From TrEMBL:
Keywords: Lyase. It comes from Evansella alkalicola. Pfam families: ECH_1. Belongs to the enoyl-CoA hydratase/isomerase family. CDD domains: crotonase-like. It comes from the Bacteria. Signal peptide: none annotated. PROSITE patterns: ENOYL_COA_HYDRATASE (PS00166). This is Enoyl-CoA hydratase/isomerase family protein.
């Protein structure tokens, strides 16, 4: 597929995907479709171990859905757009590879939904986040009501969703919505640093951790423990497990092959 609204750079096992709709990178149907297709391509690319998603420019990661597209849609049209958005966020959430959101600016509405679908979030100290949808007479439709409460708890999620007010990066850190806050000019470099560290880890073990945590979050404890045991067994059966343990015993750096 040819990408018009996305840029992708692959370097040292790390793919950096940039949503390129300046100045605020709003999400429209084409962006969703391109993101879905690019995630599928990167999933199949054995040279990519970690993915970073960010926005172009310095003003916004993603400042929400494209209201210019939404305002002219009828009920069927908006449901179709919503279906595409939910499929894209679920694709990102369920990739076998770690995905880092580099929040270089505003992350509002669909932009925050996109960030919540990623595994880790590194945020500019100048960023503002929020779900302003209720003030527009709508609600988040890309998973925001569900993923947010799994991070901050139901009470705090309702507060943020009901009032729809923007909050700053340090509040997002306190609420554990983001993992790390850095100066604005260090967002990409900090994300790359994390991605490069992750790219050196055994990929099957990372995949099993992600599956155990992501899928286990939607299970009761006993079912989650069964899933964890299965993922543990899958990781233990790899050559990388043998290499990792032998390297530790021999006090040397392991060389992982992804097998």
């Amino acid at each position: 597929m040819s990408y018009v609204l996305l840029d992708c750079e692959i370097n040292e096992k790390v793919a950096t995907v940039t949503i390129n709709r300046p100045p605020v990178n709003p999400l429209n149907t084409q962006v969703f479709k391109e993101l879905y297709e690019m995630m599928e391509e990167l999933e199949e690319n054995s040279n990519v171990h970690v993915i970073i998603i960010t926005g172009s420019g310095e003003k916004a990661f993603v400042a929400g859905a494209d209201l210019n597209e939404m305002k002219d849609l009828d009920t069927v049209g908006i449901m179709n757009m919503n279906e595409v958005s939910r499929a894209t966020f679920s694709k990102i959430e369920n990739l076998s590879k770690p995905v880092i959101a580099a929040l270089n600016g505003l992350a509002l509405g669909g932009g925050l939904e996109l960030a919540l679908a990623c595994d880790l979030r590194i945020c500019s100290e100048k960023a503002k986040l929020g779900f302003p949808e209720v003030g527009l007479g709508i609600i988040p439709g890309g998973g925001g009501t569900q993923r947010l409460q799994r991070v901050v708890g139901q009470g705090k999620a309702k507060e943020l969703l009901y009032f729809g007010e923007m909050f700053d990066a340090h509040t997002a850190l306190e609420l554990q919505i983001v993992n790390k806050v850095v100066p604005a000019d260090e967002v990409i470099s900090a994300s790359v640093e994390w991605a490069e560290k992750l790219s050196q880890k055994p990929p099957v073990a990372l995949r099993m951790v992600k599956q155990a945590v992501t899928s286990g979050a939607n299970m009761d404890l006993d079912s989650g423990l069964v899933l964890e045991a299965m993922c543990f067994g899958n990781a233990f059966a790899t050559a990388d497990r043998k290499e990792g343990i032998e390297a530790f015993v021999e006090k040397r750096k392991p060389v992982y092959t992804g097998k």
